[in-house]
Design goal:
Elements lengths: L2 H21 L3 H18 L7 H5 L1 H4 L5 H20 L26 H14 L5 H16 L3 H5 L12 E5 L5 E5 L2 H13 L19 H14 L9 H14 L4 H8 L4 H7 L4 H11 L6
Helix pairs in contact: 1-2, 2-5, 6-7, 7-9, 7-11, 12-13
Length: 297
C-alpha cells in the first residue's frame, strides 16, 4: 500500500469510527459506507486529494447505477468530506460538485381500515383458544399496528420493555436512540395474555431458540403473510412495514399532529415522516376547507 493510499484508508477508518462512536451507526450502515467509499476510491484514487472536477465526473462514471444507489454513494462522500474539514484534515470541501440525482422514495403499500380490521379479527379469532403461537401472533400484530414499531424493534423487545403501570413501551430504535411509545389498552390486554402463555426465562419478549435468542424479522414476515392468506388478503400486500405505515397514515387521517407522529415513529427528520405518512390530496383539501379561518363564512 502506497503512502497516499494508506493515508486515504486511515482517514476512511477514522470517519467510520466517528460514525460509530458519535452517531451510533449500526454495523450494516458502516459496512455500506465502507463499500461506497471504496467504490469512489476505485474511480478517484486518494479521496482526500480529489477536487471538484473529479467528483463531478463521478456522474458519468456511475451512470449505470440506480438513482437511489447513486444518491447513497454521494451522501457517503458528502459526509466524508465534511468530516475531513471538521477534523482539519482538509481546508476545502469539494462535495458540492457531486452529482445530484433526483430520487423519490416509493410510497409503501397501504392496507385500508377494513382490511386491517379483518386482519386483526382473524388473529383474534385464532387466539381465542389461548394457544401460545396464536396469542403471540396477535400480540405482534397489535404492537405493529397499534404502536407503529419497526420490525427489528418489535422482535428484539426485551421483556423489561413491557409496561407495568404506565401505558408505554421503552423502545431502542435506529442508532441506539430510545423513545417511549404509547400502548393501547387493547394491546396491553393482549400482552398480558401472551405473558400468561409464554414459556421459558428468556430476556426477550418474543423468545426463540435461534442464535439471536428472539424471533427473527424473516419469521415475523412469514407469519404475517400466512395470516393474510387466512384473512383473505393478498399476502404480497402485507409486511411489518406495511402495518407500520398503516399505523402512521391512519393516525394522520384521524387528525394526529405530524410532529407527534415523528416522535412516535422515531424519525430523526420530519421530512421522513412527511413521506411516510402520505395521505390523498382530496382529504387534505377537505381539511383546509373545513379548518382554515378563511374557509369559514
Amino acid at each position: 500500500m502506497t503512502g497516499s493510499n494508506k493515508a486515504n484508508h486511515d482517514y476512511a477508518e477514522r470517519f467510520l469510527a466517528m460514525l460509530a462512536a458519535e452517531r451510533g451507526a449500526a454495523a450494516n450502515t458502516l459496512a455500506a459506507y465502507r463499500r461506497d467509499l471504496a467504490a469512489a476510491e476505485e474511480e478517484l484514487g486518494d479521496l482526500s486529494l480529489a477536487d471538484g472536477n473529479s467528483l463531478a465526473a463521478l456522474g458519468d462514471a456511475w451512470s449505470g447505477l440506480a438513482a437511489s444507489s447513486l444518491a447513497r454513494r454521494c451522501s457517503a462522500l458528502r459526509q466524508f468530506y465534511g468530516f475531513l474539514v471538521d477534523e482539519g484534515l482538509r481546508a476545502d470541501d469539494p462535495s458540492p460538485a457531486l452529482p445530484k440525482p433526483r430520487t423519490r422514495r416509493p410510497l409503501p403499500r397501504l392496507l385500508s381500515h377494513e382490511e386491517v380490521e379483518r386482519f386483526l379479527a382473524t388473529a383474534e379469532a385464532e387466539a381465542a383458544a389461548e394457544r401460545s403461537d396464536a396469542v403471540r401472533l396477535l400480540a405482534l400484530l397489535e404492537l405493529l399496528y397499534g404502536s407503529g414499531l419497526r420490525a427489528t424493534e418489535l422482535v428484539s423487545l426485551p421483556l423489561a420493555a413491557v409496561p407495568r403501570d404506565a401505558p408505554f413501551l421503552h423502545v431502542t430504535g435506529k442508532g441506539g436512540q430510545q423513545r417511549m411509545v404509547p400502548v393501547s389498552g387493547r394491546a396491553r390486554t393482549v400482552l398480558s395474555r401472551w405473558l400468561a402463555v409464554r414459556r421459558g426465562t428468556s430476556k426477550f419478549l418474543f423468545p426463540s431458540s435461534g442464535e439471536s435468542g428472539h424471533l427473527t424479522r424473516v419469521r415475523l414476515f412469514q407469519l404475517l403473510r400466512a395470516l393474510a392468506v387466512r384473512a383473505e388478503i393478498d399476502p404480497t400486500r402485507v409486511s411489518p412495514h406495511v402495518l407500520r405505515h398503516a399505523f402512521a397514515t391512519h393516525l394522520l387521517e384521524g387528525g394526529a399532529d405530524l410532529r407527534v407522529l415523528q416522535m412516535l415513529l422515531g424519525h430523526a427528520d420530519i421530512a421522513t415522516t412527511q413521506i411516510y405518512t402520505h395521505v390523498d390530496s382530496a382529504r387534505l383539501v377537505a381539511l383546509v376547507n373545513a379548518r382554515h379561518p378563511l374557509a369559514r363564512g
